[in-house]
Amino acid sequence: MAEADRHVGILGTGSYLPEKVLTNADLERMVDTTDEWITTRTGIKERHIAADDETVGDMGAAAARQALANAGIGPESIDLIIVATITPDSYFPSTACQVQHKLGIKNVPSFDLSAACSGFVYGFSVAEQFIKGGSAKHVLVVAAEKLSAITDWSDRSTCVLFGDGAGAAVLGPVESGGILGTHLGADGSGGDLLYCRATASRSNGPHGGSPTPSNTLQMQGNVLFKHAVRLMTDAALTVIKPLGLTAADIKLIIPHQANSRILNAVAKRLGIDPQTQLYLNLEKRGNMSAASTAIALAEAVEEGRMKRGDIILLDAFGGGLTWGAMAIQW
Ligand code: ACO
Predict the structure, then answer these.
(1) Which residues line ligand 1 (CB under 6 A)?
(2) 147 closest CA partner among 241, 48, 247, 223
(3) Which of 222, 233, 256, 287 to mutate to test the pocket of ligand 1 (most atoms within 8 A of CB)?
(4) Pick from 42, 135, 136, 175: most CB atoms within 10 A?
(5) To 10 degrees, the CA torsion angle through 286, 291, 294, 297?
(6) Which helix (H) or strand (E) holds 173?
(7) pLDDT number for residue 81
């Protein structure tokens, strides 16, 4: 079969959430906020927080084990591991190498991918290229985040938003359907709107360096809000229009879970019904960056929200700025 004719689809999905739940009531005791403010401005009621000794690699491996089991393939069949994360346990080794080791997989290429909240969609697109090109048959794409580790827990404008968790999927060849179209983008000029400095980047040089920068997440939320609505809408349209699809053809949009107001505004612009066509889990999960889309996909599968032949749309936006949308026929 010619490379371009190979269909690449999702063979199995999985997710993992840490045990501890942090509610809005808990946050009311930590910073000057209210459940009412958080709920009406974001849609978030609670989020999961990893234990101190629980690593991003641990969470990623747990989600990956479930994805492998659901795909019905053993770890020995994986040819490539991609882990999307902005909260790796270490600069190196990569979290992907840790996940590989935890799963008992030997020698396959494994690397991390940094595209913030768009990381899972970026990861799917990279996996698709490897499979279509013939250098991999089964690719494990994991998105794992411990945002609690980079959150300033005294900053009410960010600490109410984020949570921890991991999602995973096994991608491989399928008879028909699978990934129909993808659009990825980035605009580095918006980098200062949402960032977390690397602690080693500006300090500790041979001449003394500069003071260690803050290593917590910094965000200009209201500016990002407008970019998120515009870029997620544009990304979705850029994918579906050339495929000859309209909003009515999309069974379910599974977006990055940034904020329910952003997602409802995107739904409105696309002309989709938020009640039936928009998948939201942020009420109980918060924003988990790349892991948000991955966990939302796994949970939608588990809930039986799509059946064979249905078209779903992943749609993500995040720090970078980055964005990505992907239409997949189930
Ligand atoms: N509790 C109570 N009041 C608060 C809180 C809080 N937790 N946080 C902020 N406020 C106050 C502010 O101080 C401000 O008060 P002021 O008017 O007296 O100055 C007021 O509420 C309004 O603040 P805004 O920041 O304008 O509130 P907004 O309605 O924009 O909501 C939010 C903030 C939820 C962050 C929203 O802007 C948002 O969701 N932005 C997009 C975030 C996003 O998409 N990020 C990208 C993806 S995440 C990633 O890549 C990791």
Answers:
(1) 33, 37-38, 41-42, 116-117, 156-157, 160, 194, 221-222, 224-225, 228, 258-259, 262, 287, 289, 318-319
(2) 48
(3) 222
(4) 42
(5) -10
(6) strand 164-174
(7) 98
Say yes or no to pLDDT of 327 above 90. yes
Distance CA 236, CA 238 (A): 6
pLDDT tens digit sequence for 302-324: 999 999 999 999 999 999 999 99
Three-state secondary structure call for residue 102: helix
What's the predicted TM-score (pTM) here? 0.95
Q: What's the rounded Cα separation, in Å, for the pair 236 and 21?
A: 32
How far apart are the CA of 183 and the centre of ligand 1, in A? 28
**How confident is the model over 112-139, as pLDDT tens digits?**
999 999 999 999 999 999 999 999 999 9
Q: Which among 34, 157, 231, 315 is the best mutation to test ligand 1's pocket, defined by most ligand atoms within 8 Å of the CB?
A: 157
pLDDT at 4: 60
Nearest to 257 by CA among 278, 277, 282: 282
Angle between helix 290-302 and 56-71 (nearest 10): 30
Q: What domain range is 173 assigned to?
A: 1-330
Structural domain count, the chain: 1
CA 167 to chain centre: 8
pLDDT digits (tens, 9 = 90+) for 218-254: 999 999 999 999 999 999 999 999 999 999 999 999 9
